[in-house]
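Note on ligand handling. Small-molecule inputs were canonicalized before submission; formal charges were left as drawn, and no protonation-state enumeration was performed. Where a ligand contained multiple stereocentres, the stereochemistry in the source SMILES was retained. For flavin mononucleotide, this procedure yielded the string shown in the input block below.
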Amino acid sequence: MNEVLQAIRARRSVRAFRSQPVEAEKVEAILEAGRWAPSGKNAQPWRFVIVESAAKREELARLVPQRNMIGSAPVTIALLLDRKAGYDELKDAQGIGACAQNMLLAVHALGLGACWIGRARDREVEALLGAREGEELMMLIPIGYPAEEPPVRERRPLSELVRRI
Ligand SMILES: Cc1cc2nc3c(=O)[nH]c(=O)nc-3n(C[C@H](O)[C@H](O)[C@H](O)COP(=O)(O)O)c2cc1C
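Structure output:
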């Protein structure tokens, strides 16, 4: 099977991580994948905050329900939407989704694991991240070398999802 199609199929949400650090080049490659996502009018409304210091990781873990996941990940990328760069609430959010999926596929391709944590508009977390005027938290992506092999979460068959007209 084609490599991209295979990665789409094999990627899983990983929620437990080894303590082994994630190489800076890999973090860079993940951000690059996010940066090349499509967005409405090519507005590129995404902004990234990399949470990697022990102090900030611990603070962040304390603020979210996914404490263990965030606490054990050597790095978490917070994905923010810059409302000043965007132009349409729905389309901006769609672009953020594309950016996130690009990053998750890059994570998988690099032998790492990650989980998409929808965590929109959390003022306390935004303050911790140093979010700027007009920037809103959209999600957190904890990343690390997997400490688990998550089971496949099955998908509905196309026969249930597709209509032809
Ligand atoms: C918008 C969105 C929000 C999600 N939020 C969470 C979350 O808060 N916590 C979590 O553990 N997983 C979260 N996930 C991951 C999903 O649970 C996961 O993708 C789904 O169960 C399918 O499993 P898979 O990714 O391993 O194929 C989220 C995924 C998406 C797309």
